[in-house]
Each structure stands twice: as structure tokens, then as C-alpha cells.
Specification:
The protein is mostly helical. Helices cover 70% and strands 0% of the residues. Helix 1 packs antiparallel against helix 10 and helix 5 packs antiparallel against helix 6.
């Protein structure tokens, strides 16, 4: 994975790590507040879905990811990347439309939103100097989804997605999709459940899509910002991950 720029001589590694840590800590805050406003705890949302939907979530999510990856990649020659605020506005409107008709329209909206979110992540990779058509970058875009989303309780462990790597081949890419799908399927199921009540679901759909879009944009900036910093500062990526982790995770207190 390469970037085609000469790094500045006065590169502030510590300052950039501080900025990435701040992005990480703030990624899910606004989304969780919105979800609390529309009522219900995320952990209980899945119980609202019909059993046949719940049992198919993993397979449906895996299919959605495969389709989203292909569609997002193919669309790059047709539609240019959009600014973050516009991405958020579009997905928020789609979530409202998807929730207006209850579960059937929410199911139809979900793969489209997944594709847009993946395309947004690709655009942020470009901002950081990476080519989204490169297989390694495509792999990393999917890894951002491993952070699950703002409905997933976050104790700092999601930083593992930043450092997880395999030999990047087509087979590895498909293996990553299969690994990410079950976890992502849970939070997408929670999103569907929040949209399952017509009209009220429009509010829930708008809120969850707003939260998801902001969350994934911030996590993509963290992911590719760290990748870029490792290259420009000529530092070991794993070491930078650990330094970022220390900034994000609260210090453990030993109790006597």
C-alpha cells in the first residue's frame, strides 16, 4: 500500500496520533445520543424482528457486503466522491424513506445504504492518498466495517480492526467478508428493528443512518490516517496502533 506524496520534514507524529484518538473517541457519541432519543435499548432491538429475518441476517449481510463492494468500486468512474455533509444528508434521507413503510421498505433500503457507506469509506481512503482500486485498500475499506457501527457497545476493543491484516488476495478478501458479516449483521438487524414501525420508523431510520454515516466516516479517517502516518513517518504500523490504543483506552486501575 503506497501514497504518492513526499512527507513533510516537520511531521508531527504525536500531534497526529492525538487527533486520531480524538476522532476515535468521538465517533459514536452523537449517534448513541440520537438512538437514545428515539427510545429503546440497542441490545433488545433484535427481538422485534420476525424470526425468519433474524435467522437470515448473517447470510443477507454477507451478500450485501459482496454486492456493495462490487457496486461501490464500479461506480467510481461514474459518480465522484461527495463531501461528508452531503453523504450524511443522503443516507439520512434514505433512512427516513426506508423506515416510512416499515420493515419491507427498510429491507429494500438496507443494501443501498450499505453500498453508499462503503463508497464513502473509499472516498476517505482517497483523501488520505490511497487508491481504492488497489486490492489492499479494498481490503482495508471492508475492515472499517469490522468496527460494526454506533449500535455496537464499544469498550476500545474495536481498535483491533486497525491492525488485523492477512495476505491480500481475492480469497483473503472473501474470507474477510465472511468474518465481518456476522458481527455487522447484528447491528444491521438492530437498525432494521428500529425502522420496523411505519412512520415512527422514518424517524428511527433517519437517526440510525445519520449515526452510521458519521460513525463510519470518522472510523475511516482513523483507519486510513493511521495507515498514512505509518508510511509518511516511516514507523512500524503495529507500534502506532499500540500508541493510539493507549490514547483511547482508559488506564486500568488495580484494586487491592
Amino acid at each position: 500500500m503506497e501514497i504518492l506524496e513526499i512527507p513533510p520534514a516537520d511531521l508531527d507524529v504525536e500531534g497526529q496520533l492525538d487527533a486520531l484518538a480524538q476522532r476515535y473517541r468521538g465517533a459514536g457519541g452523537a449517534g448513541l445520543q440520537l438512538l437514545n432519543l428515539i427510545g429503546g435499548q440497542a441490545e433488545s432491538l433484535l427481538d422485534r424482528l420476525p424470526e425468519n429475518i433474524r435467522t437470515q441476517l448473517d447470510a443477507q449481510t454477507e451478500r450485501a457486503l459482496r454486492l456493495a463492494l462490487r457496486t461501490a468500486r464500479d461506480s467510481r468512474g461514474v459518480v465522484r466522491d461527495q463531501p461528508g455533509w452531503l453523504n450524511t444528508a443522503v443516507t439520512t434521507a434514505m433512512g427516513a424513506a426506508g423506515g416510512m413503510g416499515g420493515l419491507p421498505s427498510a429491507l429494500a433500503e438496507l443494501p443501498v445504504t450499505t453500498t453508499i457507506l462503503l463508497r464513502v469509506i473509499q472516498g476517505i481512503a482517497v483523501e488520505h492518498g490511497f487508491d481504492p482500486h488497489e486490492e489492499g485498500v479494498e481490503f482495508d475499506c471492508l475492515q472499517v466495517f469490522a468496527a460494526a457501527g454506533p449500535l455496537e457497545a464499544d469498550d476500545g476493543s474495536d481498535l483491533a480492526f486497525i491492525s488485523t491484516r492477512m495476505i491480500v488476495t481475492g480469497q483473503a478478501l472473501q474470507a474477510l467478508i465472511a468474518r465481518v458479516a456476522p458481527r455487522l449483521g447484528v447491528v444491521l438487524g438492530q437498525k432494521l428493528a428500529a425502522q420496523s414501525v411505519p412512520v415512527l420508523g422514518a424517524v428511527a431510520g433517519a437517526a440510525t443512518n445519520y449515526a452510521y454515516t458519521n460513525y463510519y466516516q470518522e472510523m475511516a479517517h482513523v483507519h486510513f490516517g493511521l495507515r498514512r502516518l505509518a508510511i509518511t513517518a516511516d514507523r512500524d504500523h503495529a507500534e502506532l496502533v499500540e500508541e493510539l490504543r493507549l490514547r483511547v483506552e482508559p488506564p486500568k486501575v488495580n484494586r487491592a
